[in-house]
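Support request, please re-run this one:
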Amino acid sequence: MYKTLNLSHDIKMIVSDFDGIFTDNSVYFFDENNKVKKLSFKDLMGVSVAVKNNIKVGIISGEKSKEIDYIAEKFNLEDIHQGIRNKLPVLQEIMQKYNLKQSEIVYIGDDVNDIECLKCVKYAITVKQANYRVKELDTIQITQADAGDGAFREVVDNIIELKNHD
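Re-run finished. Output below.
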């Protein structure tokens, strides 16, 4: 049985930061007006698998990027919030919108602006490359996969595995 994280089959939604989770935190500049971020198809497939299995996916990012717009459009995601500095109120609104308990939502984040959200949910997940303050949280779980190389997919696969063995 593939299982790297301690999660639950009751999880109904995954909310994630973007940079440092879906990306490796790198930005490539071609000129002052053109920058891109590398995305892994592992993580994009993770979004697809989650959506096909009726697990809602949301993104709360401190930045705005066309890569987030691409994911939102490709997978018809409605809970996409960009340019958000104080993420906790947005997470709480999402939880209220879907009437989700703390045990029905996973939050994935990697930096200090994610800490309040990570503390708000039962299932708090980060990556190995996360800020040390995030990795020191009492309830934090750390993926085996790296940021931008399957970390989001690892979370999805763990939840699907649990749901398939009920």
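The chain has a mean pLDDT of 94. Helices lie at 41-52, 66-74, 88-97, 115-120, 132-135, 151-164.
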